[in-house]
């Protein structure tokens, strides 16, 4: 505690422009481990405008009836909340009767009853635009039950989006990042432009 106090006394904590020189692991771009060091100063390789669209991935044990039922309960709860107008989100079960103006039902991923892509267990995807992220996140916190939820942004760097930028609710799963492409063309693109939200908002920063 004494050493910490001495360190604080010698630091200029009032200058918001004081140079921050990270050391050790903090000198690298991401919090995830890499086979090779990422040199400090290369952060521009992952520069992105503010994230305006996000994915929740809800994980469950597909061979466990109770876990599967819990996930389906959450999914139906999301659909019902969207229909009531509490927030805007898109998952399996959302169509134009639930979300007026939505006409991309065929593009909505189904519920995966097993591993699919980087996802190691049963799962389903929930797209949320930044305009509704707060209310959707509150709903997830209060209603997720025993499911595990991964939240990540949609940017031009999908590997980074699924590693250093992820957030979890519940017990984390180890996803398979080997199936993710590094090149920008293969990353998640902005979704559901007819809703005029996220990257499709008239005032949005270009993706």
SSE map:
Blueprint: H1 2-10, E1 53-60, H2 65-83, E2 122-129, H3 133-143, E3 148-153, H4 158-161, E4 167-169
Antiparallel strand pairs: 1-2, 1-3, 3-4
What's this model, at a glance?
It is built from four helices and four strands. With 207 residues, it is α+β, with helices and mostly antiparallel strands.
How would you describe this structure to a colleague?
- The protein is an alpha+beta fold and 207 residues long.
- It has four helices and four strands, in the order H-E-H-E-H-E-H-E.
- The protein has helices at 2-10, 65-83, 133-143, 158-161, and strands spanning 53-60, 122-129, 148-153, 167-169.
- The protein has a four-stranded antiparallel sheet.
- Residues 1-11, 24-29 and 40-44 have low confidence and may be disordered.
Fraction in beta strands: 5-15%
Major sheet description: 4 strands, antiparallel
What is the CA-based Rg, rounded? 20 Å
Elements, N to C (H/E) = HEHEHEHE
What is the average of the pLDDT values?
Answer: 83
Number of helices: 4
Briefly note the structural class of the backbone.
alpha+beta
Distance between the termini: 46 Å
């Amino acid at each position: 505690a004494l050493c910490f106090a001495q360190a604080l006394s010698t630091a200029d904590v009032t200058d918001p422009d004081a140079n921050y020189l990270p050391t050790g692991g903090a000198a690298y771009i991401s919090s995830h481990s890499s086979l090779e060091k990422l040199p400090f100063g290369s952060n521009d390789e992952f520069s992105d405008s503010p994230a305006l669209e996000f994915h929740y991935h809800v994980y469950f044990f597909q061979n466990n009836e109770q876990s599967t039922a819990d996930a389906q309960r959450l999914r139906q709860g999301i659909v019902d909340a969207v229909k009531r107008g509490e927030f805007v989100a898109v998952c399996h079960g959302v169509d134009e009767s639930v979300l007026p103006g939505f006409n991309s039902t065929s593009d909505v991923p189904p519920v995966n009853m097993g591993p699919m892509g980087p996802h190691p267990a049963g799962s389903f995807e929930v797209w949320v635009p930044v305009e509704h992220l707060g209310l959707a996140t509150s709903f997830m916190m209060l209603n997720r039950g025993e499911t595990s939820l991964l939240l990540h942004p949609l940017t031009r760097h999908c590997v980074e989006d699924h590693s250093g930028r992820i957030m979890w609710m519940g017990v984390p799963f180890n996803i398979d990042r080997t199936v993710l492409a590094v090149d920008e063309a293969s990353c998640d693109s902005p979704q559901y432009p007819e809703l005029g939200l996220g990257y499709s908002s008239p005032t949005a920063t270009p993706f």
